[in-house]
Amino acid sequence: MTALALGPHLRHVSDRTATIWVETDRPCEVRVVNADHGLDAGARTFTAHGHHYAIVEIDGLEPGARIPYEVVIDGETVWPEPGSDYPPGQIRTLDPDGTLRISFGSCRRSPGTAERFGHDALTAFAHRLRTGGDAVAWPDVLLMVGDQVYADELTDEMRAFINSRRAEGEPPVDEAADFEDYTHLYKLAWHDDPAVRWLLSTVPTFTIFDDHDIRDDWNTSYTWRQQMWAQPWWRSRITAGIGSYWIYQHLGNMSPQERASDPLLAAVRGASEGGGDAGEVLDEFAERADKQPDSMRWSYAHDWGGTRLIVVDSRCSRLLTPDRRGMLDDGEFRWLDEQCQGGMDHLLIASSLPYLLPRTVHHAESWNEAVAGGAWGRRAAVVGEKIRQAADLEHWAAFERSFREVAEDVIAVGKGERGPAPASISFLSGDVHYSYLSRVTAPGTASDIAQIVCSPLRNPLIGTYRQANRIASLRGVSGPFRALAKLAKVPAPPLRWRMTEGPWFDNAIATIELTGRNCTVQWETPHAETALTELGRTSITR
Q: Which residues contact 429 (CB under 8 A, 6 or more apart)?
């Protein structure tokens, strides 16, 4: 009997369509059914590196639908699993006229002990949805903004799997090396916790990668890239990381229309026909995506009622050459510029890396970029690059030109220069392992502008790192760092902002609620594997 290896996952949804993603243990026909609702949709699997996947497209649904479903493989029902304590997964379409709730977070270590990583916000969130009944307001979307897996910081379970496959000391030591390693990372993250597996089967989920999905400090600088490609094991690692991301994460972010016109998906399906394997096709694509970032767009945008969500790839699409550097390459920035428009009630811009850091950190990173770029001479540039990599100074603040270009777009939208100004413009981010809200002061803008950070879902800062970031978040500390940046000829930021909520260093999940022209956000932290308590709640629109 064919079995599910991973999934089912409810991925991209609209008001009338839905996507179910699965991995199976052999090639097969996968169907998603509910006889009472006339639901019967199916797809054949495709194969890459010996693993088998299916994307089932469902159309003709009603807005706001809540339809329990079964997964049938070659005529046998494999989901829900017999004897499960969890209710059946549901297909949940969006209601464009109702309240939109988006829950989000980043940086989740799984598995591992609560003593090491704390309680899992995603697990506790799933338990509340399962047991809360009608009193619980369900999210319409779950957005995971980076570090869904940690390929370079292994748990004991992942380390044991790798040690069973290759000799001790074989590079890369204590890190994922190939596609098979990545498939096990995703299994540990999304399959072995029954609460999380159920959650992903019933809440529409969207994702974007961050560095640990590939490797710490991924694409920090041109120098970093040169150092990595000099390693004999790097090609296998980067093609595995990007290729598996395309299958396990990116395919579900795409709309049905985007998947239908995707040449890579067509090529992978074609290579899989007749028992073939598309691993080589996938590897060639992944290597090209890394070496030629403008050959692939990982960013995406979706409009849901009066809200536009723009999810920006701030990792793979970077412009990194000896002469130029940008958070986004030219084509990617033109795309982002086109998406930043008015005429919506709310504009959400999600990036794994916070656009607005605490101001102390922002000035430190902008100073470091200038020094590493030669503002204080060649010797200082070498030292600046070492500091950059050692201290992870590679957020938007460390790409000064990119930071300013985004600021220009946001100000133009907020002033109503690109259509009627939204009520709110919010940046949604993770990465930094603490949560906060910063508000922007931009004279002449009609929109309330904010940076909302929720991190981590499960991987808290400890010790010195926590204390350093707590100090950096204090008001009045940023002055000396701004003076340092000024000495390196860094101009003043085009925006002014200050942290008004947080920082909180707990594991957490945040939920944004959008009703008409109102926008609120709430952060919650798990105090047990089955319970959440509120950290903070505030309104973005005033």
A: 106, 145, 350, 351, 352, 353, 354, 355, 451, 452, 453, 455
Helices 279-291 and 234-245 pack at an angle, to 10 degrees, of 100
CB 98, CB 307: distance < 8 Å:
no
Query: Which pLDDT score is estimated for 321?
Result: 93
Neighbouring-strand partners of residue 108: 458
Look at residue 475 in the predicted model and tell me its pLDDT. Answer: 87
What span, in angstroms and rounded, lies between the C-alpha atoms of 34 and 341?
40
DSSP 214: T
Measured in degrees and rounded to the nearest 5, phi and psi for residue 40 equal -160, 100
pLDDT of the residue at 527: 93
Three-class SS of 32-60: EEEHHHCEEEEEECEEECCEEEEEEEECC
Collapsing DSSP states into helix, strand and coil, what is residue 307?
A: strand
- The gap from C-alpha 320 to its chain's centroid, in whole angstroms, comes to 22
Judge contact between 191 and 334, C-beta under 8 A.
Answer: no
Weakly modelled stretches of the chain, pLDDT under 50: none
- 3-class DSSP state of 499: strand
The phi, psi pair for 173, rounded to 5°, reads -70, 130
Tokens of 368: 């470091």
Given this model, what pLDDT does residue 481 score? Answer: 93
Residue among 24, 53, 41 at smallest CA distance from 268 = 53
| Predicted pLDDT of residue 392 | 86
In the chain the first and final C-alpha atoms are separated, in Å, by: 57
The owner of tokens 């399906």 is: 269
- Token look-up 């309680």 returns 119
177 is written with which tokens?
């090396």
State the amino acid at position 188 in one-letter form: L
CA–CA distance, 325 with 374 (Å, rounded to integer)? 13
**What confidence tens digit (pLDDT) does each residue in 458-474 have?**
999 988 889 999 999 99
* Report field, pTM of the whole predicted structure over 0.90: yes
At residue 13, the 3 state secondary structure works out as strand
| DSSP-assigned letter for residue 294 | G
3-state secondary structure of 62: coil
Closest listed residue to residue 356, CA positions, set 467, 415, 437 = 437
Q: Give me the helices (H) in 14-145, please.
A: 114-117, 121-131
User: Letter for the amino acid at 75?
Assistant: G
Residues with Cβ within 8 Å of residue 110, at least 6 apart in sequence: 120, 155, 188, 189, 192, 193, 196, 458
Q: How far is CA 478 from the centre of its chain?
A: 29
Q: Which has the closest alpha carbon to 532: 512, 502, 510?
A: 510
Instruction: Give, for 440, the enclosing helix (H) or strand (E).
Output: strand 435-441
Question: Which strands sit side by side in the sheet containing 29-34, from one edge to the other?
Answer: 39-44, 29-34, 70-73, 76-79
Name residue 150's amino acid.
Y
Determine which helix (DSSP H) or strand (DSSP E) holds 244, and give its type and residue range: helix 234-245
